[in-house]
Design a protein that fits this description.
mainly alpha
Length: 398
């Protein structure tokens, strides 16, 4: 499999370089969805494969993107805006890929991000990928803006629905019902829901911040999620992706993916258990993840493409993260299985490196970190070179 992974990674690199050189699209500044995400793949590729020409091109491209940073970004979100880009730059400096900083523009950037975070909080919009929580994640990574983190914690505490009897905390969000309608739900997902709040609060504690609100919220959020657990032997999954506000309808099978489902909850429970030294939570999280290694049917688990977001590469990424932490053979085998599926999904003659992503009822050629070949290639390289997969912190896994 290693030779196939190397060939595919080389082809992905060629496709991304060609995309940059031909300038086939207007530069978009997102970490997950835009051209900044290419940098993460290219820096790792040039490091592992010793490609000096690629390294020079990547450095030049990074300078080009940074030069246009102040004038080009029109979004603040973690997925496709400034907070995700700045998080990436911190990571790249921390891991000695670049020696660039934006300190001269920092006051202006901070002012913009704080304004937008408060705007999202004013709307009750905590969403990790697109709302206040993603901005907070960047400030937490910075480590020198405790006041903004406290403000976000107060917002989460005030907007939570609290059940003092059951000692639970939960938050409403919305989900797209169709192309024109959103419905309110209690979303358990990592991408847009309560799992991301649990992971954020766990990181807050890990950073050294303490307080009754933080502990109470984290405990309450975990308690609420645990109340939703289903019998795996009966349902074939452990947790629904979301719960309707009115509790109507049947329980829908959750997918196996980075964005929604059991893998999210398992990761969140592990991180919360470590943060508060709760071995019961850790044990439950590990049990959920072990059960997930048995879910191999592509159709039953809604896996139809290779991307990180809801495809096979994201599943491989998560199982490999747990293997790195536990060294358990079940997770190594699951990683290999989903990595092999990722190779198999390269089947489109007109797709970059043979890949396409199914989005909005059609197959699309995508190059991005979250939905495209940059993310697929990054997962492949970590497996091929058996690294520590440090970059997965940007996907809330470590």
């Amino acid at each position: 499999m290693d030779s196939l992974i190397k060939q595919k990674t080389d082809l992905i690199a060629k496709c991304i370089v060609a995309k940059i050189q031909k300038q086939q699209q207007e530069i978009s500044f997102g970490l997950y969805s835009g051209t900044f995400g290419y940098l993460l793949f290219l820096f790792y590729y040039s490091k592992y494969f010793g490609k000096k020409k690629i390294a020079l091109l990547t450095e030049e491209y990074a300078e080009q993107l940074l030069d246009r940073l102040s004038s080009g970004i029109r979004q603040h979100s973690y997925c496709d805006g400034l907070s995700g880009v700045l998080y990436l730059l911190l990571f790249l400096r921390e891991n000695h890929f670049i020696d660039m900083d934006v300190s001269d523009a920092q006051p202006l950037l901070d002012s913009y991000l704080v304004t937008m975070m408060r705007h999202d909080m004013g709307k009750g919009y905590f969403d990790f990928m697109h709302g206040a929580l993603g901005v907070g994640l960047y400030f937490l990574k910075r480590g020198d803006t405790v006041e903004y983190i406290r403000e976000l914690i107060d917002f989460l505490y005030e907007t939570a629905e609290k059940n003092r009897t059951k000692q639970t905390f939960k938050w409403k969000s919305s989900m797209m019902k169709n192309e024109s309608e959103h419905v309110p739900v209690y979303n358990l997902a990592l991408s847009h829901g309560i799992s991301s709040i649990i992971i954020f609060l766990s990181r807050v504690i890990k950073s050294g911040m303490t307080g009754d609100k933080i502990t109470e919220m984290l405990t309450g959020a975990v308690n609420y999620v645990l109340l939703q657990q289903k019998d795996f032997s009966q349902y074939g999954f452990c947790f629904p992706s979301y719960l309707p506000i009115d509790k109507s309808g049947s329980i829908l099978r959750s997918r196996l993916a980075w964005c929604y489902g059991d893998l999210d909850v398992g990761i969140a429970l592990l991180q919360a258990g470590k943060a508060l030294h709760n071995t019961v939570w850790q044990g439950t999280g590990m049990s959920v993840l072990l059960q997930s290694t048995k879910r191999l049917d592509l159709v039953e688990n809604f896996v139809i493409d290779a991307e990180i977001c809801h495809g096979s590469a994201g599943i491989a990424m998560i199982f490999r993260r747990i293997f790195l932490e536990t060294k358990r053979s079940e997770f190594a085998e699951a990683t290999r299985y989903w990595l092999n599926q990722t190779l198999n999904f390269s089947r489109f003659e007109d797709g970059p490196a043979g890949y396409k992503t199914f989005q909005f009822k059609e197959w699309k050629s995508t190059y991005s970190l979250l939905d495209g070949i940059a993310g697929i290639g990054l997962v492949m390289m970590s497996c091929l070179f058996d690294d520590k997969q440090k970059w997965d912190e940007m996907f809330l896994l470590s």
